[in-house]
Amino acid sequence: MKSIPLLALAALLGLTLVQAEESAEALFDAKCAMCHIKTQPTDFNSMVAPPVMGVMMHVKMRYPEKEEAVKFVTDYVLHPDKEKAVCMPQKIRRFGLMPSQQGNVTPEELKTIAEWMYDNYPPQGFRGRGMMGQQTPPPKP
Predict the structure, then answer these.
(1) CB-CB contact of 113 with 32 (8 Å)
(2) Residue 131 has what pLDDT?
């Protein structure tokens, strides 16, 4: 008899985790996806900012621990600075420095978004594009 309530609790927690993931992705879609696409780009000329998979590849290279990566993203989005940037210099030349998102997203929303980004990007097997379209090796685990 005790196993039924435990199964119900486990099912509820599973649903809650799925809902939280969907909520975080919806938040990313509402606050970030207008500039940072979630897929491998097919038209590099139409991009207005680096895709999230490339951004997170560079964030994880510099900040491999989730807590530090989330802290960096949260700070950087609100207080972007060329000295803090983790992307390649040619990305800043191409896209410019990300504008501060103060007033557009709260620190709490950013934490949720950054945790979701860390958990989902870059996708397994992703290989970023280096200068002149050359493939760069994936980050080391």
Answers:
(1) yes
(2) 39
**CA atoms of 32 and 76, how far apart (whole Å):** 13
Bridge partner residues of 135 (DSSP): 129
Q: Which two tokens stand for residue 78?
A: 């609100």
Rounded Cα distance between 17 and 128, Å, is 30
**pTM here?**
0.74
Long-range pairs for 22-29: beta carbons < 8 A, 24 or more residues apart:
23/112, 24/112, 24/113, 24/115, 24/116, 25/116, 25/120, 27/109, 27/112, 27/113, 27/116, 28/52, 28/113, 28/116, 28/117
pLDDT in tens, 42-83: 888 889 999 999 999 999 999 999 999 999 999 999 999 999
Topology at the third CATH level for domain 3-133: Cytochrome Bc1 Complex; Chain D, domain 2 (1.10.760)
